């Protein structure tokens, strides 16, 4: 999760987020080079009194500064389109979970099981135990198996919400009356935090999302216990 004074992204916990981080670094380097070049040109023009008639009126230079930006845009657009299609790719998910947004909590339903579902409320500050995070902990976590394709069906019951977990590279709007889907694979075990990312009312900042990725054997034990309690 994020730490105080963090400037970059959270550590990637899914292959998709790793791709997004690589694209971010790729685009940032291009922007850095462009900014440095433009700054150099501005300083050179301000500080020198020399002029060159071939620079002031040159067909070749106009061709260069037309083609070069187009090539740079292509270098940015192609990786971006690739990631865009990867984000929409859903190949035979091993587990489907329906996440329903309410004012102001989330409910989860494991549709592959007959009766496995629960509501996930934020733990109040006064009830937190040592080591838990304020405004981020929930009484029930969404548990998933590691290295398994997961599909999440996202919708809402009342107003617009948004189901977002940054370290997994996932963000999907929850729209009443509409079922959106998003897919991801957790590449390592861990607990990943997110929050509703759509302003949804007075308690918008009090409906966190906690995803716990565990080995498959642990997930099967957890689901068995949840079904017994149900």
UniProtKB/TrEMBL annotation:
GO cellular component assignments: mitochondrial inner membrane
Subcellular location(s) per record: Mitochondrion inner membrane
Function comment: Component of the cytochrome c oxidase, the last enzyme in the mitochondrial electron transport chain which drives oxidative phosphorylation. The respiratory chain contains 3 multisubunit complexes succinate dehydrogenase (complex II, CII), ubiquinol-cytochrome c oxidoreductase (cytochrome b-c1 complex, complex III, CIII) and cytochrome c oxidase (complex IV, CIV), that cooperate to transfer electrons derived from NADH and succinate to molecular oxygen, creating an electrochemical gradient over the inner membrane that drives transmembrane transport and the ATP synthase.
Acyltransferase as UniProt keyword: no
Annotated transmembrane regions: 27-51, 63-85
Cytochrome oxidase subunit II transmembrane region profile domain residues: 1-91
An MF annotation (GO) of this entry: oxidoreductase activity
Residues of the Cytochrome oxidase subunit II copper A binding domain: 92-225
UniProt-recorded name of the protein: Cytochrome c oxidase subunit 2
First-listed, main subcellular location of the protein, grouped into a coarse class: mitochondrion
Gene Ontology biological-process annotations: ATP synthesis coupled electron transport
InterPro entries membership: CcO_II (IPR045187), CcO_II-like_C (IPR002429), CcO_II_C (IPR034210), Copper_CuA (IPR001505), Cupredoxin (IPR008972), Cyt_c_oxidase_su2 (IPR014222), Cyt_c_oxidase_su2_TM_dom (IPR011759), Cyt_c_oxidase_su2_TM_sf (IPR036257)
UniProt membrane topology term: Multi-pass membrane protein
Catalysed transformations (reactions): 4 Fe(II)-[cytochrome c] + O2 + 8 H(+)(in) = 4 Fe(III)-[cytochrome c] + 2 H2O + 4 H(+)(out)
């Amino acid at each position: 999760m994020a730490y105080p004074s963090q400037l970059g992204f959270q550590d990637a916990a899914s292959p998709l987020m790793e791709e997004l981080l690589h694209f971010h670094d790729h685009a940032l380097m291009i922007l850095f080079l462009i900014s440095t070049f433009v700054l150099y040109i501005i300083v050179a023009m301000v500080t020198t009194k020399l002029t060159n008639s071939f620079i002031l009126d040159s067909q070749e230079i106009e061709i260069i500064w037309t083609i070069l930006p187009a090539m740079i845009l292509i270098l940015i657009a192609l990786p971006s389109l690739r990631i865009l299609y990867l984000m929409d790719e859903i190949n035979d998910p091993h587990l489907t979970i329906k996440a329903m947004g309410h004012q102001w909590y989330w409910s989860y339903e494991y549709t592959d099981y007959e009766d496995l579902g629960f509501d996930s409320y934020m733990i109040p500050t006064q009830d937190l135990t040592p080591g838990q995070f304020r405004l981020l902990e929930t009484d029930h976590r969404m548990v998933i198996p590691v290295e398994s394709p997961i599909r999440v069906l996202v919708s809402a019951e009342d107003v617009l919400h948004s189901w977002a977990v940054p370290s997994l590279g996932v963000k999907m709007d929850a729209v009443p009356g509409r079922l959106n889907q998003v897919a991801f694979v957790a590449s390592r075990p861990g607990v990943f935090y997110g929050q509703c990312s759509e302003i949804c009312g007075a308690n918008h900042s009090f409906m966190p999302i906690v995803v716990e990725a565990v080995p498959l054997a642990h997930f099967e034990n957890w689901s068995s216990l949840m079904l017994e309690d149900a």
